[in-house]
Every structure is written in C-alpha cells, then in structure tokens.
TrEMBL record:
The keyword Glycosyltransferase does not apply. Keywords: Ligase. It is an enzyme of class 6 (ligase). One of its GO terms (molecular function) is biotin--[biotin carboxyl-carrier protein] ligase activity. This is Biotin--[acetyl-CoA-carboxylase] ligase. The chain holds residues 81 to 347 of 356 of the full protein. Its EC number is 6.3.4.15. It comes from Paludisphaera mucosa. It comes from the Bacteria. The lineage of its organism: Bacteria, Pseudomonadati, Planctomycetota, Planctomycetia, Isosphaerales. Signal peptide: none annotated. The keyword Ligase applies.
Length: 267
C-alpha cells in the first residue's frame, strides 16, 4: 500500500475487471473522508462516460481507466451554477499529469486541448471527466467530494478504434510501436496526480498554471471557445487557473471580432 510513496492519492486502491463506470465506483466511496485519494481502476467499463453525456468506449484490457476520489477543501471547490462548477482546476490536475506521463513515455509532445482532452499530433489520447460525488446525509468529514476520471489509450491498436475515431484518436502503442506495462504507467500517473494535487492544496491551483501553459495546445493561436453566452473567436494569449482563458481580438475583417481582451472564466 505504501510503496507508491504518495501523500494521499493511491493509498487506497481498488482494481476491478469490469465495472459500469470507475467514476461511479469511486463516488460510492464518498461516504467517508477516509477514502480521500481512493483510486479505482478497471479493465473494462460497461457504461463509461465522457463529457456532455457522451459515452466513452475503451477496448478491453488495453487502456488505463482510472478514477480518483478527492475531498478538496470547500474554499477550493465553491458550488456554482452546475455540478461541474468550481472544480475545473481538477481537470487541469488530471490533464497535466497525463500530458507529462505521455510525453515522457512516448518522447512526443502531449498537448492539453481545453477543456479536457490530451492530444498528440492533434489526435486524442486521453479524456478527463471531473464530477462531484453526491455525499450521503450521514457522511463524515468535509462537504465536497470530487471524482477525477481518466481514460488513457495505452496498448490500443489502430484497428481497435471504431472507424469514425481512427483519424481522430491515438494511443501510446500507435505512437511508439510497442506495448506498455499498464501497472507501471498507473504508478507513474498516480504519483504525478498526487504531486500536482498536493501542490494545488499548498499553493492554490495557480501552482498548475505554468505546467498548463507548457502543455497547452492552442496558446498563441486562433481559437473558438464555447461559452455560456455563445462562441467567442480570437487568439488564445494566456491560460491561467485564476484568470481563465484570455483571448485577444482576431483579424480585423472577422465579423465576430472581439472588442478587446476577453477573459473566459474556467467555470
Ligand atoms: C471525455 O473524453 O469526454 C472524457 C472521458 C473520460 C473517460 C474516463 S474512463 C475512466 C472514468 N470513468 C468514466 O466513466 N469516465 C472516465
């Protein structure tokens, strides 16, 4: 249990051959704060979820399907308009840890595409799904429980992706031409998640900003960002955990040109 040497994440670990969704399995641990840092992994999910109610399909035994249960202090997880509000920084914790792991293993640049994809050469290798866990009324400890779910394509062969994803998705195996030890990879990822989460609790989520900028896919480039009030088009000039995304006006002939710098809060 202690061989990971982490402060929190992975001190409790559950590995299943098959579950509905590891995010749900981890959320069931939310009744007690003793499960802070619980990691749930599975070989296969029968109802894996992506963002916006999409399903997330991963070929059996060849991905890393992992969910981490965390109890961040209420000050770092303020309740907002919906259940994803106030915890977007945890998506960045997941994405940065994955991007570092992928870059190190593949020798390629791994880029974070806001809000929750990690990509290599424009192809998605991982998705992160952060959800609040509902806590039972008699639960002990802090108010807020959050699950950070990570689906990373590891030993997935190109022809194992459904045809519509073949041009859009990739895996460590496709990038490197070999298979990876998933336990080894899981250990590495858990350690990185633990370090980034711990740094965020000590210094505030801004501790992540530099690493996020380093791995950010579109920094300095034209982007279109969907917001609550519509799509904004401009050049992405900064990403920051406190300031959110900063866009600068695009070309003068663009009818959707922004009047000036715009900050888009994370959630
Ligand atoms: C996305 O791409 O929209 C996010 C995908 C997140 C998938 C992971 S797999 C492990 C965890 N359990 C789930 O049901 N979803 C996340």
């Amino acid at each position: 249990e202690h061989e990971l040497g982490t402060a929190r994440i992975g001190r409790r670990l559950a590995v299943w051959s098959r579950v509905g969704s590891t995010n749900d399995a981890a959320a069931r641990g939310a009744s007690t704060a003793a499960n802070d840092g619980l990691v749930v992994m599975a070989e296969e999910q029968t109802s894996g979820r992506g963002r916006r109610g999409r399903s997330f399909h991963a070929p059996e035994r060849s991905s890393l399907l992992m969910s981490v249960l965390l109890f961040p202090p209420a000050s770092l997880a303020p309740m907002g308009k919906d259940s994803a509000s106030g915890v977007a920084w945890l998506t960045v914790v997941g994405a940065v840890a994955v991007a570092e792991t992928v870059a190190e293993r593949s020798g390629r640049e791994a880029r974070i595409k806001w809000p929750n994809d990690v990509r290599v050469d424009g192809r998605k290798i991982c998705g992160v799904l952060v959800e609040r866990a509902i806590r039972p009324a008699d639960a002990d400890g802090p108010e807020t429980a959050v699950v950070v779910g990570i689906g990373l394509n590891v030993n997935v062969a190109a022809d194992a992706f459904p045809p519509e994803l073949r041009e859009k998705a990739t895996s460590l195996r496709i990038l490197s031409g070999r298979d990876f030890d998933r336990s080894d990879l899981a250990r590495d990822l858990i350690r990185r998640l633990d370090r980034w989460y711990d740094a965020s609790l000590r210094e505030g989520p801004s501790a992540l900003s530099l690493a996020w900028r380093d791995h950010c896919e579109h920094l300095g480039r034209p982007v279109r960002v969907a917001t609550a009030t519509g799509v904004l088009a401009g050049r992405l000039v900064d990403v920051d955990l406190e300031q959110g995304l900063t866009l600068e006006p695009g070309p003068a002939d663009d009818p959707a040109r922004l009047p000036g710098l715009v900050r888009i809060p994370l959630d």
